[in-house]
Amino acid sequence: MSVVVPAAQSLPAPLTRMASPRRLLLRRMLRSRSFLIGGGIVVFVALVAIFAPGLAPFDPDRIGAGKRLAAPGAKFLLGTDEFGRDILSRVIFGARYTLYIGLVAVGIGLLCGVVIGATAAYAGGWFGGLLMRTIDLLYTFPDVLIALGLVAFLGPNLTNAMIAVGISAIPYYARVTYGVVLSERQKPYVDAAQVVGAGHLRVVVRHLMPNVLPPMIVVASLGFSAAVLSAAALSFLGLGAQPPTPEWGLMLSTGRNYITRDPWLVIGPGVAIFITVMAFNLFGDGVRDLLDPRQRQRTQ
Amino acid sequence: MTRFILRRLFTALITLIISSFLVCMLIHLIPGDPVAMMMAQNSSPTPEQLAAMRHMLGLDLPLWQQYFHYVGRLLTGDMGRSIFGSEPVGKLLLERLPNTFALAFAGLAIAIGFGMPLGFFAAYKKGSWADSALMAFAVAGVSVPNFWLGLMLVLLFSMTLGWLPVAGEDWRSMILPAVTLGVTYMAIIARMTRSAMIEVFSEDFIRTARAKGLPESIVMFRHALRPAMISVVTIIGVVFGYLMGGAVVVENVFSWNGLGRLAIQAINYRDYPLIQGFILLFATIIVVMSVLLDIAYAWLDPRISVQ
């Protein structure tokens, strides 16, 4: 829209010497510790997942790669498990499962949540109200419980766990989208678009969505960490990934049987989950600070 | 206030109706014939046995009547019978409920008891190294998987130091599960308290209170704490629900004999009536808790009930 341009041209002269918004954002990015540390680790985990076959010293499923339950040493940096499989290789391949689970679950939750939230906010009235009431209702139930209930009936396996975790997060995404769209909807550019004759779908997709997207990056990043935690918990409870998948939650679940004798079985996979989840949380916090400096000022 | 409570009870009732409907319909998510799946424990059920089970569960009725059949049974206090062991579901659940409540409240006490003072302190010392350290701890707290934290605590306090038992029923054996459960929510409450306090500290009435020369302790505890409390109380309702959900996982780490352990056993045995009862009971507890908290909230902040 050309409405903004004349206003920008008539800015007073001294302001034009200010750094461009892009440079400003870049500078803030480099100064934000959460963003740098979190983003750095996220990239690292992604690289480990992509290059897992090259990085892992052994085949993660190779039984008897070493002695059973060998202590960490030069050959097996994190030791071996009850089948003599190399734990380090299994942790490295586990990064693939974790990122895959997170992407699928967040994808399902985000897609459904955004559609529901945006529809409710844009439609408004009794329909929007009813939709959001239902979402609020589901939001009060812990996501682990919803996921657990769904997996119990769908049947315990990795695919169902991902679906269940994704569905359990829909209320969260729907609520955030609803809030954001509701506040954006009241802004003049929406009226302007409607006045010029844009249809509902066009207003939502072309005008609202680009403004709704940035906050959704924050939400998706924080949601990713929650999804990874829930899915790992389901696998730990025996309701997600099934043996011999090198999934971190499942590795903890089988490793705990040997915790007295061989504690390293539960240390490697646990640290991996912890670090990955923390990275996504830091990254999400960092992006939020960058997008909304006002919020940052208020809370720092 | 009475009108507010009545309206709140009405929405709670609607919530329960919708939850029970969803729980009733869960059975249709089962791939294939639910009755055959349930009777799979029984080596070869006869067609008569299958039909009898189908009739008992009301699954031979048209879909829209199934819900009324289900609620009709619920209203007479019948949550069905456990397929494995054939005991009444209600009895099984109520036996375990006190243990889960004990664990969840102990976790909540730890979360509030440590989270609020820490958040208050961090806000008061905003920008100091202590504030940074506490907030770093809070990020770690929300990121740590509780089932792993539990295993690590067992490794340290039970196996290496020998201070606390791994499992059992007395209060000493509740310390580790309660801490495991509480840490995440302690971190969340600390973060919430901190930002609520920082917001309150910048309000005009705090500046006024300081300007008229009140001692700092009175400004903090009489003027700043109450408004900050309100925003924290609101999230305690949500936190409690999530704490109950977390208890399901933590119970299975420590073999704590609560609802969560029962639920996982039920899932492993495909004991669907028991799972349905478990979810419905959880939903009811969460709805009741949220009503109570809303009333507490309205009492703390009279503006709420007027809206």
From TrEMBL, chain A:
GO biological process, one term: transmembrane transport
GO CC, alphabetical: plasma membrane
Topology versus the membrane: Multi-pass membrane protein
Domain spans labelled ABC transmembrane type-1: 95-284
UniProt cross-references to Pfam families, sorted A to Z: BPD_transp_1, OppC_N
Transmembrane domains' residue ranges: 35-56, 99-125, 216-243, 263-284
InterPro entries associated with the record: BP-dependent_transpt_permease, MetI-like, MetI-like_sf, OppC_N
Keywords: Cell membrane, Membrane, Transmembrane, Transmembrane helix, Transport
Similarity remark: Belongs to the binding-protein-dependent transport system permease family.
Listed PANTHER family: OLIGOPEPTIDE TRANSPORT SYSTEM PERMEASE PROTEIN APPC (PTHR43386), PEPTIDE ABC TRANSPORTER PERMEASE PROTEIN (PTHR43386:SF25)
Protein name: ABC transporter permease
Organism: Lichenifustis flavocetrariae
From TrEMBL, chain B:
Biological source species: Lichenifustis flavocetrariae
GO cellular component, one term: plasma membrane
Record protein name field: ABC transporter permease
Keywords assigned by UniProt, alphabetized: Cell membrane, Membrane, Transmembrane, Transmembrane helix, Transport
Domain ABC transmembrane type-1 positions: 97-297
Coiled-coil region(s): none
Membrane topology category: Multi-pass membrane protein
Subcellular location as annotated: Cell membrane
Phylogenetic classification of the source organism: Bacteria, Pseudomonadati, Pseudomonadota, Alphaproteobacteria, Hyphomicrobiales
Transmembrane feature ranges: 9-30, 101-124, 136-159, 171-190, 228-254, 274-300
PROSITE patterns: ABC_TM1
